[in-house]
Specification:
The chain has 764 residues and is of the alpha/beta class. The protein is 29% helix and 17% strand. Helix 4 packs parallel to helix 19 and helix 9 packs across helix 13.
């Protein structure tokens, strides 16, 4: 039996050396995740990539734009594949420079810290002179850019968030905009040892804490919370927040002392609330007409919040929408008006229920592979990849800067699947046709691998040695390989090392070390650093033969902004003023119409109260799945167990299904002007009327005749590829308008769960 780590939990496994014979959650986990079942069942799935492949058109005609995603692949030897790739990298760097290479890894491929795909790729490309990088993430693109203007860096907000144990002891009311999703709270980059979301919520509830979940989905908060469910129209949370703020202001319930000493700009915002700016008072009656939530319930909730130790928490999902800054900003302002920021159990939170690490007390670093220095300044916000590929040289604005999209000729993707994260997949497919070359390392034939020219088979984490610890997680695990690599799969380090040798930078990339030597070197260097800080850990051999180290936590009862509250002059925030900015002069100076200088209600283009709903009257919520992490291991047994006729499930309210004559278990067509997809219908009263929920994560399976039609159920064919705002250029992939009908066409097999067409082997 050996312990290993995934992004969603630690597990124990038995192995015969070839495959895992039994997989079970780590015995130390009080709330284990069933996703563990995907690991063993996926390892030998037919969609594993068994050897290197090259797209036939690229092999025959050489680099250049091409019909990626529709041609057969030719199997080649490793020697041939690496020679071809080294030659192409050399050509692009010589002719166009490092600014023509996009290093696109997203980093979720492995929980291990050494074999972290993004670090491996970026280290390799930095040895060649650099690459165009991405900044921010699909999960938190808006928050990462926006929050430093208003309250602080996203890393501070998440890593220093008030400890869940403190909330369990002190919170009297938790108002959760976007809920406290147990499935999302069970995942963290790098892994989770002890899941505890249900534990802290149960402890808080037993002490008398009340939970209010504000979401279109009842199960966005665990049943242990016994939460009151308030379901505004999706995309209207900020209107409800503004009305809550208006009640606090109008009834004298706001903490004026806190606002005076710890914030700037409240009077500018208050004038907007009171109607002095546009003649419209943002009271509960105004909000009720927008949100569908009763005015009296909004008014009473404001009073309840003022009378209790209240945590206002906003999920990451709300900022993944048009004008995603606004609910974040309004949430911060609500918490500031209550005057409880910096107090145990009160204040503001961002991400409780969005990731396991939020609310885990901060701990020190763990060993990581150095990435080196990037010699290229050019970058894009991560969600603008299609814009970059389709519009080289075009100008765009971002966070107060005027920038230009680089002319990328080679896309190198190692770990991750942009055909899961991105929106308007037919447009992304068109964008992927433009570069000269697309290179992908992956263990599986995902949609991204199918849209590449050179496909190199990488190992799964269970097939290699590594170590890891999740963000905020105090357990540091050795991750010994559990089986041999499948077929000809190789780890990314070996691939890059051999490529680096061919390109003359082998010594720079490897520093003369094997994987085993790197693991020892990085660990021992970390151990020395920890010893200097007064922490002693065993040597590498003892660590490697053990189960896990417990890392120290400096402040297990941390409270966000406690030092700022105690002395705002000595411990200012990192905002321009050092205080909470209810009105931001910096953002005001940018002059962005879609992100004004204080929280406002901005009507989105697609919502149930707008004109577009006349044609497409269902608001689709494209949230994260519960049976897999993003799209990872979608072919695994647990993920497949919830499919309906091989399609992703979609949930609708009974009244909406009845109005369309639909029955549970039927295959339906979900569509709008951008595209369509198939899904299996689940009828559920836990979804607000007028709303449907279709999780992301189904591998994109386009109809060969129509790439806007996904036969598997990927909602991203339906969602516009537009940013949350000019300020952040973040992902706005959470919501869209659709119609749903019974599918009347032929129900063909899902092709993406089988390998793509492969032609006869090239003479090797």
């Amino acid at each position: 039996m050996t312990t290993h780590l995934t992004h969603w939990g630690a597990f124990e496994a038995d192995s015969d050396g070839e495959r895992l014979t039994e997989v079970r959650p780590w015995r130390g986990d009080p709330e284990p995740m069933p996703l563990i079942g995907n690991v063993a069942s996926a390892q030998h799935h037919p969609t594993r990539i068994d050897r290197p492949y090259v797209r036939r058109g690229w092999l025959e005609n050489g680099p250049g734009p091409g019909p990626r995603g529709s041609e057969a692949f030719v199997p080649v030897s490793w020697e041939r594949a690496l020679d071809l790739l080294a030659g192409e990298l050399g050509r692009v760097y010589r002719r166009f420079g490092a600014e023509a290479v996009y290093g696109g890894s997203y980093g979720w491929a492995s929980a291990g810290r050494f074999h972290h795909a993004q670090s491996q790729l970026h280290r390799f490309l930095n040895c060649l002179g650099g690459y165009v990088r991405h900044v921010n993430s699909y999960s938190l693109g808006t928050s990462t850019v926006f929050l430093p203007h208003v309250i602080g860096d996203i890393g501070w907000l998440t890593q220093q968030a008030t400890a869940k144990a403190v909330l369990a002891e002190h919170s009297e009311l938790v108002v959760a905009f976007g809920g406290l999703s147990p499935k999302n709270a069970a995942v963290s980059p790098g892994g989770v040892s002890r899941h505890n979301v249900r534990g802290w919520i149960t402890a808080a509830r037993e002490r008398g804490c009340r939970f209010v979940s504000i979401s279109p989905l009842r199960d966005d908060t665990p049943p242990e919370s016994e939460a009151e469910w308030i379901a505004p129209l999706p995309g209207t949370d900020v209107a409800m927040m503004l009305a809550l703020a208006q009640v606090l202001d109008a009834e004298g319930l706001a903490d004026t002392t806190f606002l005076r000493e710890y914030t700037v700009g409240f009077e500018r915002f208050a004038a907007y609330l009171r109607g002095a700016v546009d003649g419209v008072v943002k009271d509960p009656e105004w909000a009720a007409a927008i949100t569908g939530v009763g005015a009296e319930r909004i008014r009473m909730l404001a009073r309840e919040m003022a009378a209790a130790r209240t945590l206002v928490t906003v999920s990451w999902s709300l900022q993944r929408a048009r004008h995603g800054e606004q609910p974040l900003w309004a949430g911060v302002v609500l918490a500031a008006m209550l005057g409880q920021i910096g107090l145990p159990g009160g204040g503001f939170g961002h991400g409780y229920g969005s990731a396991a690490g939020v609310g885990e007390p901060a701990r020190g670093p763990v060993p990581r592979l150095p990435q080196g220095r990037n010699g290229v300044d050019a970058f894009i916000p991560v969600a603008r990849i299609a814009d970059m590929l389709l519009n080289p040289g075009a100008p765009y604005r971002y966070n107060g800067r005027d920038l230009v999209y680089p002319d990328v000729r080679l896309v190198y993707w190692c770990g991750g699947n942009p055909f899961h994260h991105h929106q308007d997949l037919a447009r992304l497919r068109m964008a992927f046709e433009r570069p000269d070359t697309v290179v992908v390392h992956d263990a599986f034939w995902t949609a991204t691998a199918r849209h590449a020219d050179i496909v190199l088979p990488s190992t799964m984490s269970i097939e290699r040695d590594d170590y890891g610890a999740g963000e905020g997680d105090r357990s540091f695990f050795p991750m010994r390989a559990l089986t041999r690599p499948l077929a000809e799969a190789r780890d990314d380090y070996r691939i890059f090392a051999e490529m680096a040798d061919r390109l003359g930078v082998g010594k720079e990339f490897t520093e003369g070390r094997s994987v085993a030597e790197w693991l020892r070197h990085l660990y021992e260097r970390w151990r020395v650093e920890q010893s200097r800080a007064g922490q002693e850990f065993p040597d590498f051999d003892a660590f490697w033969s053990g189960e896990a180290l417990e890392l120290p936590v400096p402040d297990p009862r941390q409270v966000l902004a406690a030092d700022f509250r105690a002395d705002p002059d000595r411990y200012p925030l990192s905002t321009p003023s050092g205080k909470i900015e209810i009105f931001s002069s910096t953002i005001d100076g940018f002059g962005y119409a879609d992100c004004p200088p204080h929280p406002v209600w901005l009507e989105p283009e697609e919502w149930l109260g707008g004109a577009a709903a006349e044609r497409f009257p269902v608001q689709l919520v494209a949230n994260q799945p519960r049976t897999k992490l993003h799209s990872q291991l979608d072919v695994g047994a647990y993920s497949q167990s919830v499919k309906i006729s091989g399609r992703e499930p979609i949930r609708m309210h009974p009244s909406d299904a009845e109005a369309r004559g639909l029955r549970a278990g039927e295959i339906v067509r979900v569509f709008n002007d951008r595209g369509s997809c198939l899904a299996g219908l689940v009828v559920d009263e836990g979804v607000r009327a007028g709303v449907a929920q279709l999780s992301t994560g189904a591998w994109y399976d386009p109809d060969p005749a129509d790439p806007t039609f996904c036969r598997h159920g990927n909602p991203n064919v339906l969602i516009a590829d537009r940013p949350s705002s000019t300020l952040s250029q973040g992902c706005a992939g959470q919501l869209t308008l659709v119609e749903i009908e019974r599918y009347a066409g032929p129900l063909t097999e899902v092709e993406v769960v089988r390998p793509p067409e492969r032609t006869g082997a090239e003479a090797l």
